[in-house]
Amino acid sequence: METEVRVRPGSAKAAKRALAAVVFAVLGRGLVACARLDSRVRAEVQSWPDGMVVTLAVAPRGPRTTVRKAGGRLEALGMRGDVEPTLLVTFKNVEAAVPVLIGMKGVLQSFAEHRASLAGDLALGMSLVRCLHIVEGYLFPDLMNRRILPRPATREAGHLRAYAGLLGRTAELAPSAAPAPDSTEGAVS
Amino acid sequence: MIPAYYEFANTAKVLSGEGAIENIPFELKNLRCGNALVITNKQLRGLGMVDHVLRVLADGGIAIGVLYDDVPVDSSVLVVNEVAGAFREQGCDCIVAVGGGSVIDTAKGVTIVLSSGAKDLMKVRGVDRLVGRYMTPFVAVPTTAGTGSEVTGAAVIKDTERHVKMAFASFNLVPDVAVLDPRMTLGLPQRLTGSTGMDALTHAVEAVSCRQANPLSDAYAATAIDLIREYLPVAVNEGHDKPARLAMANAALLAGVSFSNAMVGIVHAMGHACGGVANVPHGDAMAVLLPHGMEFNMDCAGPRYGELLLHLAGPDVYARTPKAERPAAAVAAVRALLDWLHERSGQPVTLAECGVTSDQLPAIAKLAADDGSIGMNPKDASVDELLAVLKAAL
Predict the structure, then answer these.
(1) pTM for this one?
(2) Could you give the dihedral angle defined by the CA atoms of residues B321, B322, B327 and B330, in that order, rounded to the nearest 10 degrees?
(3) Which chain B positions have a beta carbon within 8 Å of A120's beta carbon?
(4) pLDDT of res. A183
(5) Domain span including residue A89
(6) CATH number for the domain that contains residue A67
(7) A122, B5: Cβ pair inside 8 Å?
(8) ipTM
(9) Terminus of chain B with fewer CB atoms < 10 Å: N or C?
């Protein structure tokens, strides 16, 4: 019999965690970019209470990404762990997170399969899910979107503008005129 | 089709049959408990049903540290916090809930507050967040046959400030013991028997078509619908028929296990919102909205509804209905039952009959879009689509 057995995580686990960290960073900034570019995301975020902090994380002690709405702005805080979230989505393990993060599984399906938990107001959680669906519509190609989104993606700006928007860390949430949603799936401006 | 991945839990010990209540003290001692907090409402106390449970507890050597009999029609955050405080003050070690969905959901809210160490339920909202925590031993004695709350990991509790029904979900919320004693539902009025039965039917139908339907939840749902088809009319017509009451109690439990695992969808999302905005009783909302929800989902859940025709209408109707017509026939079978209940007991068949006005519909649709259940529906529903369904049901 062996006691106090120590097993080192495999290299595949480390690679998945690194991948999750990268995609989390993109997703956090993608949410901020879409709050700038897309009136639907902006409207959702405007409905959130001031001071709301949203964190997506992987258990245990995995990568995370945080965004905060404060003072009329949405700000990506990246991996910072010193901000108490008001809405916390935690994937049970990195294997549960990766399929969602690389566009192989939808967010709602992940919740249905109990692969993630949510701490906080469920109504705000539904608002976050709607935002993530729109963000995924920008970040992923439509081949993936058809599999993971509940309905065909529509965009108010092109993929390239969204990717360029990832360079920014904040979004002003003051209402601004936005073009009408593009009704054609996969349209790029 | 089998899902690529699913989870299924049914952890409640079930005591079913006349005399089940008399076994509660044994079960509590088995859980190492001796000082109970009993939650119920005044109406049930007035009917003498609670006094019987209290006598059984006392005879069995279980102290009653707190008797809270003031649970309102809708569970509320304020009540949950108050009862949790009383539990702590009196040093109780278990909860016995005697009542319908609101009573049992209140008890679940209390277990959430107690187990999380919080003082306010609003601080511990969420889904699947009660992982690995000690849960307060909990016995549920349903006095209706509809919600299935005695075996579900879900609770709906009203935020009275925002007029919103909040959903809590965790496998850890499932009571330790579910007690189905037909004596507890013998006095249920005809009208309530019908609406709670339709609630159970809605659980089973939605469970079969929602995102996490799986072979185990399907089996529970199918058996529940079979029992409802056979025994709901008997229970409505002959309220004192004990076998029918016990069968309906089992049907509600089976449907509860099913939807607790497979989830519910658009009908519950709209029903919760109707309750929040217009105070529509849950069973009435389910009864009115079920056929409309099925029609909305028809293009993606039609084949599943077609399979349900066997259980909704029986083997003869199923056999003589062409396959392509079975989904619509399933909806027709639900409408036929609803119409029968309308004639027999005055069951509402429209939202207007439930007191909903057209100017409330936009607020209901908006609230339904934020309800967690809508995310588990097999088909996405926008606020505009929800509004269209609600208008059709008005």
Answers:
(1) 0.92
(2) 0
(3) 125-126
(4) 35
(5) 12-172
(6) 3.30.1050.10
(7) no
(8) 0.86
(9) N
